[in-house]
Amino acid sequence: MGSRMLRSPRSQIKARYAKGLVWAGGAAIISQLGMYACAVVGARILGREVYGQFAAVQSVVLACAQVATTGLGITATKYVAEYRQSDTAKVGRILGLCFRVTAVFGGGVGLITFAAADIIAGLAFRTPELAPAIKAAAFYIPFFAMNAYQVGTLVGLEAFRSLFVASVLQSTAAIGVTLMLTAALGLVGASAALSAGAAISWVVHQVFLTRQCSTYGIRKLSGDCWGERAILTEFALPAVLASSVGAAVVWSSSVLLTRQSRGFVDMALYNAANLLRNVVLYLPGLGAKVVAPMLCNLKGLSKTEQYVRVWWGNTLASALAAVIAAVLLSAASPVLLQMFGREFRGGELVCFLLFASGVLEVLSVAYYQVILSHGKMWWQSGVVTIWAAVWLALAFLLVPPLGAVGLAICSLGAWTIALGLYIALARRLLVASEFRNEPSEPISLEAL
């Protein structure tokens, strides 16, 4: 009995990780299949060049949506995970603050994007006819912003089963909406489908969020929420600065690509290859989603040994999964690209470069978990600024002569630099005073 009791904490951690991985895995599979299906449907109906225009529109609203979230998705995950057992009233105030801020900023950024659609289409893309599509997609922004804090809260509660069911409902609806609107209205319809899908996702996740909060005895306290405003400057502000800088740089490089001689044609290829790159991020992304609330929770409970073991195990597993996925996808890329249409042939090099950068991103995210769980988000903001500078410099140097290949090299170069920085910062935290008495050798989850 004594031996079983000694193993109990580790067994509980292992069970939490495994359970979360299964349900988060199911949710991610459904979500990825849904996005891939929507992309294939859109590409086949629109054709490569018009699909490239859609990718440009999508890049606009995605960049704006990242700004509109104000970093409160990951903020909700950290603080909900850390305080859900010790201070439910604090969690309720934080949720009230997240709702108010994302609603205001999401609505504001959405309105600005809608009003500036003609300027964006004419000046940025030099394609004025994109304006109606940008306006149709602008409604995606407020729903995405509010959905980010919903998902962040559910992750913080480790409610991965609810996320799975929500993904099934939302993805099924999104595929149907994309098919109907794109077939009926072309580019504008595909753009409107983005907004409709985000609205559906917000409604579905709100139902599950309300249910989970009730289970934990958490009440959203909007009236007292301003008392928690310190999290905005300590955590949310650097988080949104990091995401905003990253989104702006990726969007700017996409605009640069569309201005080249093969503009929207290369943009379509890059977008298709980037969707396949998401598969490299898939399993590691599951691990990151599951391990983030666990690490925050263990950090808050001062369970240092379990923290180190869980982090190391997830890092090693993520690296292995990413390398295997990158190798297999590189071999299969000729066939996978043709699923988007015959015009997508010849993009194998773009795929290879993006898959390699995906492996580096996976490792970067694994080390970033240490920074996140320690609340060092200003460090994260600094890393992203350097990452963005490298990306942008390479873009101006390589995109004009190399097109989509040049943009893929930007991704590879930027993530190489970022990984080195993340390793250095994470090691600094892991060897700090609170970890001096911990094991120095890497520990896998099997050691639990």
Describe the structure.
There is one protein chain. This protein has helices spanning 2-46, 48-68, 72-83, 88-115, 117-124, 131-137, 140-156, 160-216, 230-258, 263-300, 304-338, 348-373, 377-402, 404-430. The model is unreliable at 1-7 and 435-448 (pLDDT under 50). With 448 residues, the protein is mainly α. The chain has one domain (9-447). The two termini are 18 Å apart. Helix 4 (88-115) packs antiparallel against helix 7. It is built from 14 helices and no strands. The radius of gyration is 22 Å and the shape is globular. It is 84% helix and 0% strand.
Biggest sheet layout: none
| Rg of Cα set | 22 Å
**Helix share, percent:** over 70%
Structural class: mainly alpha
User: What is the number of helices?
Assistant: 14
| Overall body shape | globular
Q: pLDDT under 50 segments (min length 5)?
A: 1-7, 435-448
Strand content: under 5%
- The total count of strands amounts to 0
Instruction: Please write the string of helix (H) and strand (E) elements.
Output: HHHHHHHHHHHHHH
Mean pLDDT: 86
Topology (SSEs and partners):
Layout: H1 2-46, H2 48-68, H3 72-83, H4 88-115, H5 117-124, H6 131-137, H7 140-156, H8 160-216, H9 230-258, H10 263-300, H11 304-338, H12 348-373, H13 377-402, H14 404-430
Helix pairs in contact: 1-2, 1-8, 1-10, 2-4, 2-7, 2-8, 2-9, 2-10, 3-4, 3-7, 3-10, 4-7, 5-6, 6-8, 7-8, 9-10, 9-13, 10-11, 10-12, 10-14, 11-12, 12-14, 13-14
Spell out the key features of this protein.
globular; 448 residues; 14 helices; 84% helix; disordered N terminus; mainly alpha
